[in-house]
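Protein in question quoted in full.
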Amino acid sequence: MSTVDPSDRSDGSRPSASERASFVGRVIGTEDSTPLDFWVALAPDRSLQLDDVVALERTAPGRDTVRIFGIVTQIRARHEGARFDSDVFLIEDGVLPAEVTEAAHILATRFEPEVFIPPLPGQAVRRAEGEERDEALFFDGMEQKLAAGLSREDEPVYIDLEFLDGTRGAHVNISGVSGVATKTTYATFLLHSLFTGNHLGPEAANTKALIFNVKGEDLLWLDRRNTGLADEQAERYRHLGLEPAAFRSVRFWAPPVRGAETPVPDTGSRSDGAVRSFFWTLADFCSEELLPFLFADVEDDRQHYTMIVHNVAARLKKDSTALPDGGVTFDGTALRTFVDLIDFIRARVEDPATQQDWAGPAIGTGTINAFVRRLFGARKHVEHLIRGGVQRPDRHRIDRQSQVTVVDIHNLNDRAKRFVVGVVLRKTFEEKERSGLARPLLFVVLDELNKYAPRDGSSPIKEILLDVAERGRSLGIILIGAQQTASEVERRVIANSAIRVVGRLDSAEAGRDEYGFLPVALRQRATIAKPGTMILSQPRLPVPLVLEFPFPAWATRPSEAGPPARSESGASDPFAGIGERDLVAPRDR
């Protein structure tokens, strides 16, 4: 009887016990073996699955032993000895001799030392586990590892924090089909990992996140524990070194209810007083030159009336005087509603006596009429967001005192969404610019990026997002952007994202050039990925990794929201974790 072990090395030496246990097969010689990829025939009693990590050694003449690592990207099974499809029936009946063989395609990830030589046919291949797996995936060289999820074997997958916090790169871009790819959920998971994983050291308390809630009410419950979190999912958090808990410090902002005399927040199903209303006063609108954000469609820059927009914005800033209640006066005329303001603007641009000062010289009637039509078209969408006649209007200015600030815009029209996103981002960017410091970091989460930074055209919001993408790293602003279709987003925004993440993709979208960083097999897998499965690409690792992330530990709907935290007295405290200075009455009158 033969005493040859299939795991024996090609030079006849015996492997160690651990090497025999992890042995899976040998490099085959019927397919080309290159430094970039090769095939492994699996031993009869061994198996591999997609995304498994393998390792082997080769000693080249005159060189030290080279350790080669790789990831399984494809597996095939076939009958050896069969010529026709129908032979399978004869083989199964025992008439035709044949053997079932399995082979795995390996994409090389790392060579130590970096001598790029192909493995030789017949060399033993083993499963990489523990420290060897970390070395294969470059986790061993990451000074700070951010937990990004788990492999299908429940092994941790990490992001090199240096490529997220601006040290060597910045920004995250997430693509996927709406409702299936769980883009926003994964973005909030990354924030949760960042804030609870002790990665930021002394900077943790001052690091902030600004999240725009553009769809549904999912993000209005971040501060509530998820009652639907199963024990096994909670254990997955602990396996990543994370706490399965809700976000501790969150402030929620929502637009006022339309038509309400007082700015009562449109809180939807959340009625515990944790949501504050936000709006801009007429004085803010004039002094901060916010008018261009009402004309933020991408085609506006190609229209003649954009000249009027900037002229009018300049006049509003120059001629207005702020009132204590947020209203403004122009030469003694007090204005306290957005309707009053746009009527005033219309009169100034249409009156021949003031037209040149307000609209600009040599502006035709048709152009002025186009401007007025667009201005009045915005009225019904934003009049509750721009107002005066309110006591203590400063209480309705969006701030970032809590660690996480959620700005809810899901109930707004697209024009109003653009206005809010544009104004908030511009103010945020200007504040960071004035500080001149990259620390503490500010993470901005924005879904539907294709609406705000589309591939074609120009707009004030798009220019801000380009600034964030290109200069935000030096200012400490990190964009976590998401969209269904990366092919519709400005290329420079995508190109400046060091971390790329893909969930379920439409098959047509998966074929676009924007996903060229994905090998063909992973593009195909992206079209069938289930919710919670993501494909992660980062600069440190040459091959994208498939991962899963745990079920949210925070509530995403009212039915999941756990009871509020308890105060020291044992009483229910709906504001636990928000901070005393954050407390406000649910209705400001």
Summary: The first strand starts at residue 23 and ends at 27. DSSP finds 17 helices and 23 strands in the chain. The chain has three domains: 17-136, 171-278+399-503, 281-387. Residues 414-435 form the longest helix (22 residues).
